[in-house]
Amino acid sequence: MQRRTFLAGSAALAGATLAATPLAFAQGKPETTKVAIAVGGKNLFYYLPLTIAERRNYFKDEGLDVEISDFAGGSQALKAAVGGSADVVSGAFEHTLLLQAQKQMFREFVLQGRAPQIVLAVSKKTMPNYKSIADLKGKKIGVTAPGSSTSIMASFVLAKAGLTAKDVAFIGVGAGAGAIAALQSGQIDAIANLDPVMTRLERAGEIRVVTDTRTLADTRSVFGGDMPAGCLYASQSFITKNPNTTQALTNAMVRSLKWLQAASGSELINTVPEGYLLGDRAVYLDAWQHVREALSPDGLMPADGPATSLKTLQAFDPAVQGKPIDPSKAWTNDFVKKALTTVKV
């Protein structure tokens, strides 16, 4: 099965073609207090800063009434923003580059993760004799949703081994218990997913890890540089019209990132919803230790991150190959720098 193109048929948002301009800082009340955020797989550590900001009322402290809609994967969350049902996406940075290739200008304004946290692994049940990536040809790979960051990472790993997305079947399995069940039942031969799902499968001895991006060192080894991951991004139109609201969102997220830097395991478990634990607190805490380094400590985009992300996409995705994409128009540190001068946990 060929990976679906998640941008097909999407209409450009009003103002999406605005050129990048210097961004105003919030100096007063938010222009709009009601903000709809779309996310794909909210229970994952990839999006943990968003959950913390919500559960600890950091958005409310900024005068915002935030409604978070959870989708099966990041590509579906993106569609919500492109279609106008969400103002902001909590999703993968590389999606802003894919959107720009479609002449839709979206911009990242606060980083949640400085490593993707995605793990590609094979099933010991259906692929007991796995030796190399080449063995994945003709196999079914479970991803959160086709077109999401999990399938992007898997496609890149395949490309490095001389395979393409057409050589495998990407199957959407979500980011929770459904993904675990799909692997355990033999519906998929391999899986690209995140914690706590992957640690749960590892602890059960059901997978063999092939590629791991939960640490900075592993991420740089896989991608050849810093690879930005989860972030908040919105259309350039939304940011231009709502700089105070954008600043308020950034303040809440930076506060969340700071809290996570010092949080104990028990504080974390007592903050997140019970359903996030997948029925096993010990596994959740183990997974937390695996990914803790991957979370951004301050919300800032690393200098080489956007270029690494674009190079990754260009390695396998025809949607960006040969397109005039300017990574500098897909992100800004301006709001985070402002937040870092004022935000305290």
Protein model, in words:
The structure is a single chain. This protein is α/β, with parallel strands linked by helices and 345 residues long. The protein folds into two domains: 195 residues, D-Maltodextrin-Binding Protein, domain 2 (3-Layer(aba) Sandwich); 105 residues, Periplasmic binding protein-like II (D-Maltodextrin-Binding Protein, domain 2, 3-Layer(aba) Sandwich). Helix content is 37%, strand content 16%. The strands form two sheets. The protein has a five-stranded mixed beta sheet, with helices on both faces. Strand 6, helix 5 and strand 7 form a beta-alpha-beta unit. Helix 7 packs across helix 12 and helix 10 crosses helix 14. The relative contact order is 0.21. The N terminus is likely disordered.
Brief synopsis:
Helices cover 37% and strands 16% of the residues.
Summarize the topology.
Blueprint: E1 34-40, H1 48-55, H2 58-61, E2 65-71, H3 74-83, E3 88-92, H4 94-101, E4 106-111, E5 119-123, E6 140-143, H5 149-160, E7 169-172, H6 177-184, E8 190-193, H7 197-203, E9 207-212, H8 216-223, E10 230-235, H9 236-241, H10 243-262, H11 265-271, H12 281-291, H13 305-314, H14 334-340
Parallel strand pairs: 1-2, 1-3, 6-7, 6-8
Antiparallel strand pairs: 3-10, 4-10, 5-8, 5-9
Helix pairs in contact: 1-10, 7-12, 10-14
Question: How much helical structure, as a percent, in the residues?
Answer: 25-40%
CATH class of the largest domain: Alpha Beta
Ranges where pLDDT stays below 50 over 5 or more residues in a row are 1-26
Number of domains: 2
Sheet with the most strands: spatial strand order: 2-1-3-10-4
What is CATH's topology name of the largest domain?
Answer: D-Maltodextrin-Binding Protein, domain 2
CATH architecture call of the largest domain: 3-Layer(aba) Sandwich
Largest sheet: 5 strands, mixed
Task: Tell me the distance between the termini.
Answer: 47 Å
SS class: alpha/beta
Structural Rg = 19 Å
Report the order of strands and helices. Answer: EHHEHEHEEEHEHEHEHEHHHHHH
| Total helical elements | 14
Would you identify the CATH H-level superfamily of the largest domain? Periplasmic binding protein-like II
Instruction: Please report which band the strand proportion falls in: under 5%, 5-15%, 15-25%, 25-35%, 35-45% or over 45%.
Output: 15-25%
Mean pLDDT over the residues: 92
Subcellular location: Periplasm
Protein name: NitT/TauT family transport system substrate-binding protein
Family: Belongs to the bacterial solute-binding protein SsuA/TauA family.
Keywords: Signal
